[in-house]
Amino acid sequence: MNAIAEGFAPRLLREKLYSNIALSERLFNDGIAVDKAVRRTGLRSLLGPGKDVICGGHKNWVDTLLHEVEVFGKGHVRSCFVTGIEPKAATLEGIQFLIESGVVTVPLQWNPNPGSALEGHRAPTSEWYHDLVLKTYALLRKNGFTHEDFYRCAGEETIINYLYEADGDLLPWERQIYPEPKAA
Fold it and tell me: Do residue 24 and residue 63 come from a single domain?
């Protein structure tokens, strides 16, 4: 329990973990998520003013994720990137680092919202996002992440879930619904 709580910067979360064994067990079973919108400092302050103060800065975010992997294990920690704001190469560099470190990493599509600081800015093309998702999926597979690892942390239906299914990597309950075809 102490190893879990020591890796988190926010004092309130540490206090909750110390006082709630059931919560820490749920985090281990279900996975834990610490999200970061973007990697670059200037963009972070534009898109999420105050987030660095709350999260303790980029280095603390990375250190926390790495500590969570030590505590909960590979495939039990998730982080999302809002993609389409930074260059694809920079985004993939961050995604690759986290995946290679044991973090299930989910690329999310960025949409400029009316009234936001980037209202009117154009998001990348669907081909750009498609390529990014395929590259992220390839990194997940290369680093041994299963569909179950991804689903445990990401939960919701994403295109990456469908890619796992297309490759025949079904979730346990899906195997009951769609049994392996019998050899002729």
Answer: no
d(C-alpha 16, C-alpha 99), whole Å: 28
Give Cβ neighbours of residue 146 (< 8 Å, ≥ 6 apart): 75, 164, 169
Q: pLDDT by residue (tens digit) across 87-137?
A: 899 899 999 999 999 999 999 888 877 887 778 888 899 999 999 999 999
Q: How far apart are CA 179 and CA 114, in angstroms?
A: 47
Radius of gyration, CA atoms only, the chain: 18
Distances (CA, A) of 102 to 14, 17, 27, 75, 82: 22, 22, 16, 6, 19
Q: Which domain holds residue 23?
A: 1-30
- pTM comes to 0.75
